[in-house]
Design the sequence.
């Protein structure tokens, strides 16, 4: 992390994907593929056979428990009564198995399988830039430095599906205040871990969906200091599983999901707008702000409604109208007063 | 080489197997809750890939029959093509039922607002028309027009990969590979059937303009190599 070259890859400059060594497919990718095939459950078929033959053919696919899964631990926290909802929560099994985390593969079910062995200990989160005193947090600090609270937020993906998720964490503002934001600050940049050994999507372009890693995101300083901006370390009362952004992620519920960057290693307070990954990739489709807005369509699809992923089986989903700012207008609409949201999408 | 009727039958059984097993596998995955936390996108993507693979397989048959000198292979083409329709039907059914949840008015809006869905819909209409006119009696009834209609598969060979490429957020490598495959399949025909070959104009023999790849040229050559 202290390697200065790595430092310039992310929120400051793009560099890694230009290097020619990224283009060769290392032997390890081949080995990883085998691990993936195993993780997809093909190994489990064989393993589960003897004991379950009598239980019938459908059991051939079950028994994921045979795979070592990521360990999550209980967290201590208070409920924040301001951020609760009457809406039905999306069950943990769906929140943790339907993920966009291209570092672990582009298909929704891949991160849960490919991130099983993700190491979060040791972890280092650096807060630096336009701050009075840069700080570095380790894994324990993430859950102990600031009192944890639970908030239930709606999550609206830019792909027009949504969930309702109980997160555990602390306000981003509380963290930034620990470092002391200078008056020169205008924006905050975030960076995901860059570790191709652990993240097959960063190693192999076919798996990583063509994103320029490490993944970077950003907010204006006003957005970052807004009480809604949340640093989540947990989900359903336990520490985050890797596919949901372990050990620490951003949650900005009035913006499309891709703004809520996962597995953060660096937060840099800046005096200019930082680059953001999806915006770099397709600026006409993904803006810097990316506020949920049913009136502004994605160039290729409508954002007027969303499919809510909720309890129950295949037929249980509902299609509901998308709300402006994902229903959080009372908290954030002031941030965008007088702004043309069609232009600043 | 000649294939015995028995071998052709065996080949057909194998192709049915290849077509049906992935559907059974998908069903097992879904019933066992192994199609991800939200199986909707999984099913739509899976059946979409099935459709595009079946279209590739259909378009591979006549080049293979020619290269391997196995004319009897052509007898399996309709069956493979019909699987493209079956997967396409499942793909659209999954989209309309599981994703749109039968919001028909919304469907209309979606078709307009999402150009890739319009392209996909056009592709499905082609598959539907070809499937409906695939029985032998329809072939007899339509006569020469049958081949003309079925040349629409070449349009599908363009629409299908465009729909795929257009639908993804950033993972364009796989759809790009498919575009390459379809260009190869169409290019092979263009070369072997002389779609772009210079042909003397029936009246003005001096004319040097290239013959356009009109359906007529395609139909004539496809007609001879087709059966």
Sequence:
């Amino acid at each position: 992390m202290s390697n200065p070259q790595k430092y310039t890859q992310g929120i400051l400059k793009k560099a890694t994907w230009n290097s020619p060594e990224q283009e060769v497919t290392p032997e390890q990718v081949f080995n990883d593929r085998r691990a993936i095939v195993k993780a997809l459950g093909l190994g489990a078929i064989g393993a589960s056979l003897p004991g379950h033959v009598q239980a019938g053919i459908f059991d051939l696919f079950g028994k994921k428990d045979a795979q070592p899964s990521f360990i999550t631990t209980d967290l201590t926290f208070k409920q924040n009564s301001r951020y609760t909802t009457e809406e039905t929560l999306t069950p943990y099994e769906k929140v943790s198995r339907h993920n966009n985390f291209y570092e672990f593969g582009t298909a929704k079910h891949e991160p849960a399988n490919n991130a099983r062995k993700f190491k979060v200990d040791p972890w280092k989160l650096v807060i630096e830039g336009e701050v009075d005193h840069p700080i570095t947090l380790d894994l324990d600090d993430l859950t102990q430095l600031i009192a944890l609270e639970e908030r239930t937020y709606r999550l609206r993906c830019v792909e027009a599906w949504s969930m309702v998720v109980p997160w555990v964490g602390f306000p981003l503002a509380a963290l930034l205040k620990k470092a002391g934001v200078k008056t020169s600050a205008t924006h905050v940049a975030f960076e995901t871990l860059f570790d191709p050994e652990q993240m097959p999507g960063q190693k192999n372009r076919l798996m990583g969906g063509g994103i320029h890693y490490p993944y970077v995101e950003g907010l204006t300083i006003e957005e970052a200091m807004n009480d809604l901006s949340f640093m989540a370390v947990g989900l359903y009362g336990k520490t985050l599983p890797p596919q949901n952004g372990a050990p620490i992620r951003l949650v900005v519920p009035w913006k499309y999901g891709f703004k809520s960057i996962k597995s953060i290693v660096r937060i840099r307070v800046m005096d200019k707008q930082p680059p953001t990954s999806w915006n770099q990739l397709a600026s006409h489709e993904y803006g810097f702000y990316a506020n949920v807005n049913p009136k502004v369509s994605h160039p290729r699809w409508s954002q007027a409604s969303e499919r809510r992923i909720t309890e129950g089986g295949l037929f249980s989903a509902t299609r509901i109208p998308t709300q402006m700012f994902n229903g959080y207008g009372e908290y954030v609409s002031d941030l965008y007063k007088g702004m043309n949201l069609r232009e600043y999408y | 080489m000649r294939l015995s009727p028995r071998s052709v039958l065996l080949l057909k059984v194998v192709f049915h197997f290849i077509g049906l097993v992935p559907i059974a596998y998908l069903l097992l995955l879904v019933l066992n809750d192994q199609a991800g936390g939200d199986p909707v996108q999984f099913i739509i993507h899976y059946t979409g890939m099935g459709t595009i693979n079946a279209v590739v397989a259909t378009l591979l048959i006549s080049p293979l029959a020619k290269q391997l000198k196995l004319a009897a292979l052509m007898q399996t083409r309709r069956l493979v093509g019909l699987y493209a329709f079956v997967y396409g039907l499942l793909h659209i059914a999954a989209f309309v039922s599981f994703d749109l949840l039968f919001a028909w008015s919304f469907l209309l809006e979606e078709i307009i607002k999402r150009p890739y869905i319009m392209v996909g819909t056009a592709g499905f209409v082609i598959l539907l028309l070809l499937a409906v006119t695939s029985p032998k009696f329809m072939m007899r009834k339509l006569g020469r027009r049958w081949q003309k209609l079925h040349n629409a598969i070449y349009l599908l060979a363009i629409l299908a990969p465009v729909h795929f490429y257009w639908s993804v957020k950033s993972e364009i490598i796989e759809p790009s590979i498919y575009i390459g495959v379809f260009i190869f399949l169409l290019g092979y025909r263009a070369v072997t059937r002389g779609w772009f070959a210079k042909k003397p104009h029936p009246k003005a023999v001096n004319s040097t303009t290239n013959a356009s790849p009109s359906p007529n040229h395609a139909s004539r050559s496809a007609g001879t190599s087709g059966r």
Notes: Residues 205-227 of chain B have pLDDT under 50 and may be disordered.
